[in-house]
Design goal:
7 strands, 37% strand, globular
């Protein structure tokens, strides 16, 4: 089985926060942040698998500190754990006050992607090899998160049986 280090899938993207990026609280609009998270994570998944990949789920996005107009925002993502055809991608969002230089973790996110072959079927991905202390911690706790994802997905499917598609109008 082929293996790849987490660093081989690392994506780093930094941008500035502008007035059209903020909400009525003058903080970065959460929907914009989530879109950027998915964009960075999808590149990490594709770098790891080197094939087509689809977002299977956004497992969590935890907003920890507001991002303001005086900040830059850096998205750092990489594959933190792998199953047979699935990849867990971790994204940390770092805000930097451009005046003081203070940096803080503004948000964290976990997403799951599935690798697809040319006919659109799930295909095996290389095992991930963690190297840094952070990567090792995420890798060691990845299997537990995968179990929780499976439970949540089953509950979502059960709920979908009760949700209607009737027009409310």
């Amino acid at each position: 089985m082929k293996k790849k280090c987490s660093k081989e899938s690392r994506v780093i993207r930094t941008s500035r926060v502008f007035p059209n990026d903020v909400n009525n609280h003058n903080t970065l609009f959460g929907g914009n942040l989530m879109s950027d998270v998915d964009m960075a994570a999808s590149i990490s998944a594709a770098r790891h698998a080197r094939c087509g990949c689809v977002t299977a789920s956004t497992d969590s996005v935890d907003f920890l500190s507001p991002i303001t107009l005086s900040d830059s925002v850096c998205f750092e993502s990489y594959v933190s754990w792998t199953g047979k055809s699935s990849m867990e991608v971790f994204v940390k969002i770092i805000a930097e006050d451009l005046r003081s230089g203070n940096r803080r973790i503004a948000a964290t996110a976990f997403l799951t992607f599935v690798a697809l072959d040319d006919s659109g079927r799930a295909t095996e991905v290389p095992r991930v090899v963690p190297e840094t202390e952070e990567e090792i911690k995420l890798f060691e706790t990845g299997e537990e998160r995968a179990r929780e994802r499976k439970k949540r997905r089953l509950k979502s499917k059960e709920l979908a049986d009760y949700v209607t598609t009737d027009k409310p109008w």
